[in-house]
Amino acid sequence: MSEAATPERVLTIGAYGKSASSFFDALTRAGVDLFCDIRQRRGVRGSEYSFVNSKRLQTKLSELGIAYRHLPELAPSTEIRECQYAADEAQGVSKRARLELGSTFKELYTRNVLDQFDNGAFRSSLRGARRVAFFCVEGAPGACHRSLVSERLHIEWGVQVEHL
Fold first, then answer.
1. How many structural domains compose the chain?
2. Residue 92 has what DSSP assignment?
3. Residue 150 CB neighbours (<10 A)
């Protein structure tokens, strides 16, 4: 595998707590050239975050010259998400207020998703992308599976990670 296939930086971004302008400004300031949507469902209810509904998101990214890729294989399954919802309920915290993923979610996601993901093939497919952003909706990186993805890539590729 050629070293050129390794991006110089992996970034993560969420939508909650951001406006459309602050979201897209963060991506452009960071120099993102590949945006990886790792959600299972690519829609958000309500108008506040409609800018990250798939078609609108892809249109705006294209206008900004940022390539878009949907990676549903990195999305947690419904079963894994339901484990987190149960942990949130037990702690009395809402999805939008969560700051950290539960240990059961982390374990299941690592075993059933990350360990099955062919990150070598993904790395080869990057074709010169320098700054790759992983996206899901949660505001806090530690409350989202994107932090687990970026941590894995940091360990395996030795790439810097930045949470926008």
1. 1
2. T
3. 23
